[in-house]
Amino acid sequence: MQPEYRQRVSLLNPVHFFALGFGSGLIPMMPGTFGSLAAIPLLFLCLELDIWQFSSLTFLVSFVGIYICGKTANDMQVHDHGSIVWDEVAGMFVTFLFIPLTLPNIVVGFVLFRLFDILKPWPIDIIDKRLHGGTGIMLDDLIAGAMACLSLQAINWIWPAVF
To answer: What's the pLDDT at 163?
Structure first.
């Protein structure tokens, strides 16, 4: 038998499908990690985009995420349920703003994003606890992505030959 919240969402609903990270958020263990992994194929599809196109797409993924995460949370009647992982997808996109999409960068960026998302250092922890709705669901991950991006920028500056 499915949990009650699961009966309120459907992968056939496009809003739910995206909010649940194409279904990756329904994996019972570590849904945030699997949601972040679901972003990687999308990032590879962006290899040919210039920085402005990628930035615009990142903004779109983030802005639309406020609606789809909020709507799905309302439909589930659970605020920020772990299976809602579009915020991780958007956070991964933010992680790679102004970063070359190379395999080493993607691996290190993924690890950095997951660390910031899981550990929730200041101000992520405050936002996670105080903001609700779609904005609250999205914003902590967007900030985690920004922190991962800055860290990855520093790593690329220190070891440019590696990345």
So the answer is: 66
With left for phi above 0 and alpha for psi between -120 and 50, is residue 131 left, alpha or beta? beta
pLDDT of 98 over the 90 cut = yes
Q: Are 8 and 76 in contact (CB under 8 A)?
A: yes
39 exposed, middle or buried (CB, 10 Å; 0-12, 13-18, 19+)? buried
Average pLDDT over residues 142-150: 98
Residue 80 banded pLDDT, cuts 50, 70, 90? confident
27-36 mean pLDDT: 95
Give every CB contact of residue 75 below 8 A, 6+ residues apart in sequence: 8, 9, 16
Q: How far is CA 135 from CA 69, 94, 117, in A?
A: 8, 16, 16
Residue 62: its H or E element: helix 51-76
Domain assignments of the chain as residue spans, ordered by start: 4-158
The dihedrals phi and psi of 85, each to the nearest 5 degrees, come to: -125, 10
Mean pLDDT of 132-153: 96
CA angle 120, 19, 144 (to 5 degrees): 20
DSSP secondary structure string for all residues of 133-145 = HHHHHHHHHHHHH
Gyration radius from the chain CA atoms: 15
